[in-house]
Amino acid sequence: MKLLLRLDEIVESIIVGIGRVAAWVAVLLMIVIVFDVITRRFLVLGSTKLQDLEWHFHAILFLFCLGYAYLKDAHVRIDLVRERLSDRAKLWIELVGCLLFLIPYTVIVIFYGVDWWHRSFMQNEMAESATGLPYRWIIKAALPIGFFVLLLSAICMTFRKLVQLFAPEELKQIVNEREKVETVHLDEVNIPQFDRD
Amino acid sequence: MLDFFIDFMPLFMFLALAILLFSGYPVAAVLGGIALGFGYLGVYLDVFVPIEFFNIVGRIWSGIADNLVLVAIPMFIFMGTMLEKSGVARDLLYCLQVLLRRVPGGLALSVTVMGTIMAATTGIIGASVVMMTLMALPVMMHRQYNMPLATGTIAASGTLGILIPPSIMLVIMADLLGRSVGNLFVAAVFPGLMLASIYGIYILTVTSFKPELAPPLPKDMGPQTPKEFIVMVMRGLIPPVLLIFLVLGSIVAGWATPTEASGVGAAGAVLLAFINRRLNFKLMREAIERSALTGAMLFFIFIGATAFSYVFRSLGGDDIVIEFVESTGFGSWGILFTLMGIVFLLGFFFDWIEITLIVLPVFAPIVQLLDFGDHLAKIDIVYWFAILVAVNLQTSFLTPPFGFALFYMKGAAPPNVKIQQIYKGIVPFVGLQLIGLTLVMAFPEIAMWLPNKILN
Fold first, then answer.
1. Do A74 and B71 count as a contact with CB atoms less than 8 A apart?
2. Quick check: B353 and B301 in contact, CB under 8 A?
3. pLDDT tens digits, residue range B222-232?
4. Which long-range contacts (CB under 8 A, 24 or more apart) does B448-452 make?
């Protein structure tokens, strides 16, 4: 059990690490767009490549953050009924949701996604436009990989809910603490205060 | 019995969705799970083939990832988050409060102006309403503002962001309806400004007759010398307003696509934080990570909704909907009012993200059937419809007892603010919204004049 808890911690740090690194792709995206806008006005460069690069970054940005967002509990829920339920009922919902919705869904997308990527790879697929970025199959791998990370996060969550529902008190405490640190609710906003004011 | 089930499977899909969404499990995963479940049910009943799941993967890719239009969304989210986290938004509100302190209802008006300028949203209604509540409500309460007036203004102005461009919702609507984002942005300019002006006129009128509802800020607040005053305006007001106008202006003028403008706007927001000497690694990391989470949340629903609507269509959902609409015998106006009623009801329970992504693909084929004769040109209908949905949703978020924005406001307001006060405060604004909605319905030119004028 201790070993599984340790494993959960490691997998979590991998998922969160991937998300946090991928999040910085937003800066690259911003730079590429600004560069594209400037160069297009004043020089005539191959803008198709830059625009391809823009959506490549966009794809990486959201696909690699799916699992990260689930662990942080950032995915939108309809809370109307849920907030009135007991803590135990919420745990059950999360557990059943993972087993019935999220895990089968991610598994199917990965299953067909790998096949889909493989076809692209075998054809050595390029951009539709001759001047676009080559090796389209590289970026296409982001879809199955992103969903795999999401699947990992769903497995972590399933494990945690099982612990919280059925394990002895001390183990529950460890998991509860772990989840408390993590949660980021997107509808909670803090107005920044600065020393200088 | 089984035939009946097969014929109406798409409807059962929606029924299952409606029930299971209230479990509180993430919306995106519920959508995906139901798509999968009904897909396999369809396989079992011989009306769906497994290889279609392969098509769904392709559809997710080409619709969401390989889509230059949607690249604008992470950038607009980042821009809004950066403005919020770097304190630029807070400084702007302070500046407006000081500037408008001699005007009747100045604090309330500053909130309305703020809502209009900051319509480059943080992405979700909840977050913008919470932000406005946290920034503006304490000051108004401290000045003994009439509580319903204060809360009503904040909730209404905070939701204005979904309508006034650059709005993430309009990007998604345009994408789903297969229209140009730039045109839709331009079409939203006047309806958005019109609503903001209606709020402003209302606040001015009420507070002119009853100044005791809205005590002004004390005279000694803010800068005392003209020099300090100019510094404050140059620092707090001019830069963000310039940034928003640059972003919006370049789209309206046709200099830049929304995607280009979003990237430049995001860079501008970083630049503003830098000029204010607040840009550091910690701030950058917070803004980056929060935007990434918001983006992942939004696109995950997009992915789930893509799978859901693919299975829905494949099982014959479109035909059922169109047959149903035709069997009602409603004319175009009847259909329009029905669709508007559905959107309005859904707005009680769901944020625009779910409504737009789940319902709009179902509505899209119906909208194509509409014909309003001389009322407006056929090619303008889709844009006009999108604007109507936007105004309608905004109204729905504000309407008691289930107004989406009102709950967020209650959560962020100090504990002595009662939900009854919030309800009471919003009533006049719902009235104003209905006037606005009626005006856009009766006079499509409010939306369509500008795009037809400058884009043709």
1. no
2. yes
3. 777 888 888 88
4. B448/B187, B448/B376, B448/B377, B448/B380, B448/B383, B448/B384, B449/B190, B450/B186, B450/B187, B450/B189, B450/B190, B450/B252, B451/B183, B451/B186, B451/B187, B451/B383, B452/B380
Tokens, residue A148: 């795999």
Residues 6+ apart with CB under 8 A from B109: B100, B103, B200, B203, B204
Contacts with B33 (C-beta within 8 Å, 6 or more apart), sequence order = A97, A100, A101, A102, A104, A105, B20
Q: Supply φ then ψ for residue B159, to 5 degrees.
A: -90, -5
User: Measured between alpha carbons, how far is B334 from B347 in angstroms, rounded to an integer?
Assistant: 20
C-beta neighbour count of B96 within 10 angstroms: 23
Chain B residues near residue A57 by CB distance under 8 angstroms: 71
Q: Nearest to residue B177, comparing CAs of B392, B385, B447? A: B385
CB nearest B299 (choices: A55, A62, A81): A62
Class of residue B360 by CB neighbours under 10 A (exposed 0-12, middle 13-18, buried 19+): buried
Q: How far is B61 from chain A (nearest CA, A)?
A: 8
Q: What is the DSSP letter of B256?
A: S
Contact list in B for residue A194 (CB cut-off 8 A) is 87, 278
Q: Do the Cβ atoms of B370 and B408 come closer than 8 Å?
A: no
Check if the beta carbon of residue B152 is closer than 8 Å to that of residue B115. no
Separate counts of helices (H) and strands (E) for chain A: 10, 0
Q: Mean pLDDT score of chain B, rounded to an integer?
A: 89
Residue A62: closest C-alpha in chain B? B296
* pLDDT at A68 > cutoff 90: yes
pLDDT attached to residue A46? 60
Q: Which two tokens stand for residue B146?
A: 């009439």
Sort out which chain B residues have CB atoms less than 8 A from A75's CB and list them: 26-29, 296-297, 300-301
pLDDT value, residue B305: 93
How far is it, in rounded angstroms, from Cα A192 to Cα B134? 11
From residue A36, alpha-carbon distances to A30, A53, B44, B251, B399 in Å are 10, 10, 50, 16, 44
Q: What is the pLDDT of residues B69-96, one digit of tens each?
A: 999 999 999 998 898 888 888 888 889 9
The Cβ of residue B447 has, within 10 Å, a number of other Cβ atoms equal to 30
Question: CA-CA distance, B302 to B325, in Å (whole number)?
Answer: 26
Query: B36, A72: Cβ pair inside 8 Å?
Result: no
Question: What's the CA angle centered on B383, arms B378 and B384, to 5 degrees?
Answer: 80
Per-residue pLDDT, averaged over A163-174, amounts to 89
Work out the pLDDT band at A195, boundaries 50, 70, 90: low
| B179 phi-psi bin (left φ>0, alpha ψ -120 to 50, beta other) | beta
Looking at beta carbons, which residues of chain B come within 8 Å of A23? 288-289, 291-292
* Inter-chain CB proximity B57 and A29 less than 8 Å: no
| ipTM of the complex in this document | 0.93
Among candidates B64, B259, B288 on the partner chain, residue whose Cβ is nearest the Cβ of A23: B288
Entry pTM: 0.91
DSSP state, residue B211: G
Query: CA-to-CA distance for B409 and B405, rounded, in angstroms?
Result: 6
Mean pLDDT of B444-449: 92
